[in-house]
Amino acid sequence: MTEPLAALWAELEAVDYPALADLFADPDRLTRYATTLGLPGGAIRFDWSKTHLHPAAEAILVRIAEAQGFAEKRRQLIEGEPINNTEGRAAEHTAQRGVGSAASVVEAEALHARMEALVEAIHEGLFGEVRSLIHIGIGGSALGPALAIDALTRDGARVAVHVVSNIDGCALEAACRACDPATTMIAIASKTFTTTETMVNAASALDWLRAGGVEDPYGRVIALTAAPEKAVEWGVDDTRVLPFGESVGGRYSLWSSIGFPIAMALGFGGFAEFLAGAAAIDHHFVETPIESNLVVRAAFADLIYTQALGCQSRAVFAYDERLALFPDYLQQLEMESNGKSVTADGKPLGRPSAPVTWGGVGTDAQHAVFQLLHQGTHLIPVDFLAVKIPGHDLDPAHHQILLSNCFAQGAALMAGKASDDGARAYPGNRPSATMLADDLNPATLGALIAFHEHRTFVSAMMLGINPFDQFGVELGKAIAKQIDAGGGEGFDPSTEALLAAAGIGG
């Protein structure tokens, strides 16, 4: 018999959450909550010991998972059933990594083979000399590629990739200034091939190619889309259209043909390693019991903070310059997925959903936002990301100081420091988790991203919401289209005045 959810959540709220320092009185705490997972690109240590996780709270969360049918929903996700119930679709991003229904995995492999052939043809010079790629997309069609390329190509790339997402023309102009039209290709990434920002930027990129003397600008375009017929209608030759399935959602799509710029920059072998790292996490998530599942553990901690301890945000700090875009990537993944106020069946959620995800790069952030983390009135759980092997060849002191600061911040947040001078007192008992990778390479980056995808899914299933739709992004876009079409009337006085001041409409 399923236990009533309201009573279970109330039970979680009523748990006694000892101070973090007191939790370490348990000699087995570190063994229980800090685990090193071997992966294709090197191990990652997942240390959740400095959070308020403890067996009594976990036991209740396991019961909530059972009441929500978590195991069955995980099966539905992996086997390609329509887990995205509001849109009547599956969410098959794991099939892109070889973990899913047999038919979907075979289809993904075929589409990857098509992409590999095109990437190799470009690298071998069949399209002429290609030194640069301007990748045009927005949201999930841009954030994932931008993260991977920034993280993995600082030592150089097969082809220099510039990711453009903003409709502000300054973004496209900056990319164009860095490229030579004669040696540049354009990738247009849009699931529907109708996204306004992307298609306007694409048209301007073609104009730039023409102005630069390219006689056949369409011949320099690669389309990445789930609507190949629209790409062909727009002018892209079918041989340069790389499709992906309708069941692959935007913010989960970098494993599909949306990852084309990653393969262009790294070579397809590097992209395959990226997929393999993610697949290793998929297997852990699917095959490991809930009580020792690292992904589930992270989500359980998140739920303790949002549902029992009233935290409204979660901070993520990358102590590695190569991971500077990771907090930005997580913002979309977590807030677009779980920023909902109704359950999957349309009923009011009645509980907090996703916290506000934010963050930055250490050590820069220590001289800015860490003041609030240590001494502010908000309790904000923190995630630290770090890498053992540095991404540079400078004096090892750089990396030692970087990692020392990372680990010191977690220790200081937990321990605090008493003082008779209130301005110099640190309350402590502030939680953090640390993910320490042996190295940063395509496989470990893929693993980190997949870990957070599944972490987001677990939180959603525990709350009973659908993490795969995003209707909240549509209303403002629809109104903007109405204004652009000349229908900008009937707004509130403030909006009317802004439109008039900007010379729009009327």
Secondary structure elements and pairings:
Blueprint: H1 5-14, H2 20-23, H3 29-33, E1 34-37, E2 44-47, H4 55-67, H5 70-78, H6 102-123, E3 132-136, H7 143-152, E4 160-164, H8 169-177, E5 184-189, H9 196-211, E6 221-225, H10 228-234, E7 241-243, H11 260-266, H12 268-287, H13 294-308, E8 313-319, H14 326-338, E9 356-361, H15 370-375, E10 382-387, H16 397-415, E11 432-437, H17 442-463, H18 474-484, H19 493-501
Parallel strand pairs: 3-4, 3-5, 5-6, 6-7, 8-9, 8-10, 10-11
Antiparallel strand pairs: 1-2, 2-11
Which fold does the CATH topology of the largest domain refer to? Answer: Rossmann fold
Number of domains: 3
SSE string? HHHEEHHHEHEHEHEHEHHHEHEHEHEHHH
Annotated CATH homologous superfamily of the largest domain: Glucose-6-phosphate isomerase like protein, domain 1
Q: What structural class do the secondary elements suggest?
A: alpha/beta
As a percent range, the share of helical residues equals 40-55%
The number of strands is 11
How do the strands line up in the largest sheet?
A: 1-2-11-10-8-9
Task: Summarize model confidence as the mean pLDDT.
Answer: 96
Instruction: Report the span from N to C terminus.
Output: 62 Å
